[in-house]
Amino acid sequence: MTQALNWDLPDPFTMTITVRPEDTDRLGHANNVVYVRWLEEVSWQHIDSLGMTWALHEETGKAMAITRTELDYLASANAGDELVLGTWLTDWDGRFRSARQFQLIRPADGKTLLRALSTHACVDMKSQRPARAPKAFAEILGGALVAGGRGLPG
Questions:
Q1: Which UniProt keywords apply (predicted)?
Q2: Does some domain include residue 6?
Q3: Fewer beta carbons within 10 angstroms: which end of the chain, N or C?
Q4: Looking at the domain assignment, is residue 52 inside a domain?
Q5: How many helices (H) and strands (E) does the chain have?
Q6: In this structure, what CATH number is given to the domain that contains residue 118?
Q7: How far apart are alpha carbons 79 and 134 in whole angstroms?
Q8: Are residues 104 and 83 in contact, defined by beta-carbon separation less than 8 angstroms?
Q9: Neighbouring C-alpha atoms within 13 Å toward the C-beta of 91
C-alpha cells in the first residue's frame, strides 16, 4: 500500500490509523491533539524498530526529548477515515540533536492531510538536562538518516 502513496521522501516508516469517533472534535474532524499523539506513537514505533528500545534508554539513562514540533494541517480527517502516517529521521548532529519529518496521507483519495517536523535533544533521564547522546544512539540515529528532508534549524 505505501508504494502507491505519494511520499515526500523515500521508504517511510509507516503506521496505519483508523480515525475513531472519540478522536474527533466539535467540528467533526480529528482534533489537533490527536495528531500530536499519532506523531509520538509513530516516532516510538520507528526508533523501537531500529533497536533504540526503551530498555536501551533505561540502560543508558538517556532519551531524546522533543524540543519543538511544527505541524501544517492541510486537510481534515473524519471518523472512519483510514490513514497512513509516515516518518523519517532527517537530521542528526552526531552529538545532541535530531530532526524527524512526518507526512499523513489518506489512501482513499491520496491526499496529504498533514506535514510535520519535530526536533529532539538528548537528555539525561534523571536530571532532565541536556546530555551527549550515548554511542548506541549515535549509531542508530546516524544509520537511519534519510537525505533530502528538512533538518535542524540553523
A1: Hydrolase
A2: no
A3: C
A4: yes
A5: 3, 5
A6: 3.10.129.10
A7: 41
A8: yes
A9: 19
Q: How many domains does the chain have?
A: 1
Q: What is the pLDDT along the chain (154 residues), one digit of tens a residue?
A: 444 799 999 999 999 999 999 999 999 899 999 999 999 999 999 999 999 999 999 999 999 999 999 999 999 999 999 999 999 999 999 999 999 999 999 999 999 999 999 999 999 999 999 999 999 999 999 999 999 999 888 7
- Copy the grid coordinates of residue 11: 521508504
Domain that includes residue 115, residue range:
11-142
CA atoms of 96 and 114, how far apart (whole Å): 27
SS3 state at 130: strand
The contacts of residue 107 (CB under 8 Å, 6+ apart) are 1, 4, 5, 82, 83, 84
Q: Which residues of 60-91 are buried (b: 16+ CB within 10 A; e: fewer)?
A: bebbbeebebebeeeebbeeebebbbbbbbbb
Which grid coordinates are listed for 119? 526536533
Q: How far is CA 90 from CA 2, 6, 79, in A?
A: 19, 18, 31
- pTM over 0.90? The answer is yes
